[in-house]
Each structure stands twice: as structure tokens, then as C-alpha cells.
Amino acid sequence: MRMLPGVLVVLVGLCVAVETSAQNSSPGGWLTPQWDKPRITDANRKPAPRRSIAGMWGPADGPGAGTQAQGVPAKPNNGKPENQLPYTPFGLELYRSHKALEGVDAVLPSEDNDPRNRCEPLGMPRENHYNVRLTQIFQDDYKVAILYHYDNRWRIIWTDGRELPKLVDGGVEIGGEVRERRFFGYSVGRWVDDNTLEVQTVGMMPDDRVWLDSTGRPISEQVRVTETFRRLDYDRLEWSETIDDPKVYTRPWETMKLPMRLHDPRTDVMEYYCSPSEQENYNKLFGNGASGKGAP
Amino acid sequence: MTRGFLITSIAAVTLLIPLRVAAHHGSAAFDTGKRVVLKGTVTQWVYSNPHCLLSLEVTGADGQVVRWIAEGQAPNVIFPVGYRKDSFKGGDQVTLTVEPVKNGRPLGRILQVVLADGTKLGAASSAPLNTSVPPSQ
Question: CB–CB of B24 and A282 under 8 A?
């Protein structure tokens, strides 16, 4: 007991030392994103760090490349035959019940039923398909954390060897117990080589709560999402995704292969919230009128 | 709806790289490719999500004043092309180019704003200004 103050002093001293060493200076101040980066060539290519995807990443082709307004990038919803999806009868019925503001079947703002416009969480995998811009990835020995720009959402991918929960009726099974569904599900990742992290995610919300993309493509609680994060070199990351949802689609299909580029870790990220009050004000001033609702 | 108002055709447009962004409402409401140029007085600039909104009073040839509202994308999207919280204040004289909505109401999305000092702010929406479709007004 008599030694306690001394121990505390040492602990506090250590904490201060760690804190001090972690504080790097930012002479640039509040940096804004730099999107016009030079191409990576043999002359400026740096090797990828081993088993790390940590960093501040943004779509390599600019901020618009992650927007995905026309649906998932590998299959934009533009009516072309090559982009038709392998719907099950239920999946097609579900798609037709969705009134989206984007894509080939877009409706006017007053007619939509996109959960996003009620500021519902996008969940997985739609967060990967909605205005992906600056995306911060942190990792430690146990997990990877992805901090998305839109709505300041984040998710955890466990890399400590734990098993992927088993999909069961009503949720997922973990240790013999049925656990709740989550907007971002349950994710586990494993390094398939020194530069490639493969991530499986299950246990997401049912089809009446979430969509796959902004064009109203559906997704169900039976979906299994496989993501691959492949660090091509120090500055580049390839983010791929495939979905397997037997309730909605007859076979698995690839939704995106999004090239990402490393940004300055000091870059300031502006807020991009879905605020119900701001949404309401927008509808009052603009959205309703654009739909022909209310007095002209 | 816009007949009689001071509307100028664009003879030549500045080449701008369109921002392919997700409008919160999609594109179905807009008269794609149509352009309307408005000269007027700023009454309000709302810098918020999901869209920024610029309100303008435009006086027509008949002396009637109509309030136009033009939307831009969210602040984080239009910040890089120069739009700031204090880009406009009430009373500013601006020339605004919009892509109007289809239903004829005085609403549109911002393609370009020219400030009184000549400063140009570019596309604040997903619609490109460098369209080949001729202005219809």
C-alpha cells in the first residue's frame, strides 16, 4: 500500500512518455484532401508493409469514384444486359418493391422508399457502396477498424482467429447462443498472404431494413459478404467485394473492385451526416417542390 | 414558369469536370441537359447536409420577382471546388447557371455561380456544365 503512490507516478510517467512520442507535428495544419496525386510508377513505387492496410485511404480515381450513384460499380444499374443481376423470384419482387432515387428505375423524391432518406444506418454492405471517400483504417494485433466518411460510421473486423458466427434463424450463433442481427454484421478477417486480407461478414439486418445500393438493389439477412483488401504497394489498396445471398440472388456475384489511394494521415475529414432535421429542411425548401408536391 | 425572366443563354461554357456524386434525390426530377442562367440577388445560403441550397431573387422583364432555389451537393463534396460556408451572403449579386427541375418550378441544381467580382464557382452537382445540349431558354 505504501508503494502505491510511487507505482502510480511511474505509470503516469510511462503514459506521458507514450503520449508524447505519439504526438507528431502537423506543420500543414488542417489539411484538405489532395485528390490529384501523381501516378504510381516504377520510379516512385514503395513496397507494401507486411500485413498492414492501415492508413487514410480514398478512391484512387477521385472522390466521385466511390459515390456509386448508379449502383455497385461492377454492375451499374443502367439497364444494359451485361449488368442484369441473377435475381431469385423473391429477389426480383423485392427489387420491384424498392423505389429508388437512382438507377434505371429511379422515381421522383416524393415517391421513394429508400431507408437512407430516413437516415437509417446503411449497414453492410451498403456502406461500401455509398459515397465512399476518405476512409480511415486502423489496425492492431486483434482487429481492423474501418471508419467510413458517410454518417461517421465504423466497423470492426476481427483478425485474432475467432470463428465467423454461423447464420441461423433470427441472427447468428456464437458459442451455442443465438445473437442479434446487426447493421454491420459480424466480420472476421484472415491474411491469405502478406498483403491480402480476406474478410467474411454475416449476420446483417433483414431485407426490409437495408438495401445493397442506391438504386434499390436488395440484400437479405442471409447475405454473406466477402471482401478482399489487397495492398498492391505502399500507396495503393484494392478493395474487392463479392456477395452470396441465396434468398435474393441465384449465385454469388462481384459487386466492386475499388482501387484506393493512400492519403496524408493528417488530412482533415469534413462531416457528412444524415441529419433528420436538415433532411426535413431540405425537403421543405427543395425536395418536395422538385417532386411537384406542395404549392408551386 | 420562367418566361419573362432575365435569362441568358450560354454561348460558351467553361469546361468543367463533372462531379459524379449521388444526389440525395436522384436525377429523375431534373430536366437533364437543360440550362437556365439567372441573374439575381442572394437571399440565403444554406451550407448543410444532404444538400447546400442557394436562394436567389430574380427579377423578370415584367418586374415580377421570383425566388429561385438551387441545390448543390453536401459541403464535403463541394468544398474542394471552392464552395465555403461564407461563399455567399444576403444581397450578393450573382449569375447562377442551373439545371432546372422538370415540373417548371423555380428550382434547379447548381452548375456554376459567377460572383460579382467575376469569380467562378463550378459545378456543385452531378450534372456536367459542358453538355452538348443547347440551352433551351
Answer: yes
Q: How far apart are CA A208 and CA A211, in angstroms?
A: 8
CATH code at B1-128: 2.40.50.140
Whether A106 contacts A76, CB under 8 Å:
no
Query: Under DSSP, is residue A11 helix (H, G, I), strand (E, B) or coil?
Result: helix
Contact A289 B101 (CB under 8 A): yes
Closest to A34 (Cα-Cα) out of A283, A268, A271 = A268
Q: pLDDT 10s per residue in chain B (137 long)?
A: 444 444 443 332 333 333 333 345 567 889 989 999 999 999 999 999 888 999 999 998 899 999 999 999 889 888 888 899 999 999 999 999 999 999 999 999 999 999 999 999 987 765 444 433 333 33
Chain A residues with CB-CB distance to B under 8 A? Answer: 32-33, 35, 63-65, 67-69, 100-102, 106-109, 112, 117, 130-131, 133, 149, 214, 269-275, 278-279, 281-282, 285-287, 289-292, 296
Query: What's the pLDDT at A29?
Result: 81
Contact (CB<8Å) B107/A274: no
Helix (H) or strand (E) segment spanning residue A20: helix A4-22
Closest CB to A273: pick one of B20, B23, B49: B49
Q: What is the mean pLDDT of residues A33-61?
A: 95
- Write down the residue that cell numbers 451537393 correspond to: B73
Gap between the Cα atoms of A100 and A220, Å rounded: 17
Beginning with the edge strand found earlier in the chain, give each strand of the sheet holding A171-174 in spatial order.
Answer: A166-168, A171-174, A177-179
Domain ranges of chain B: 1-128
Query: Which of B89, B100, B113 lies closest to B39 in space, CA to CA?
Result: B113
Report the candidate in A215, A179, A174, A171 with the shortest Cα–Cα distance to residue A83: A215
- DSSP codes joined into one string, A67-121: T-TTS-TTS-SSS-GGG---B-HHHHHHHHH---SSSTT---GGG---GGGGT--
Give the C-alpha separation, A279 to A255, whole Å: 29
SS3 (DSSP) at A140: coil
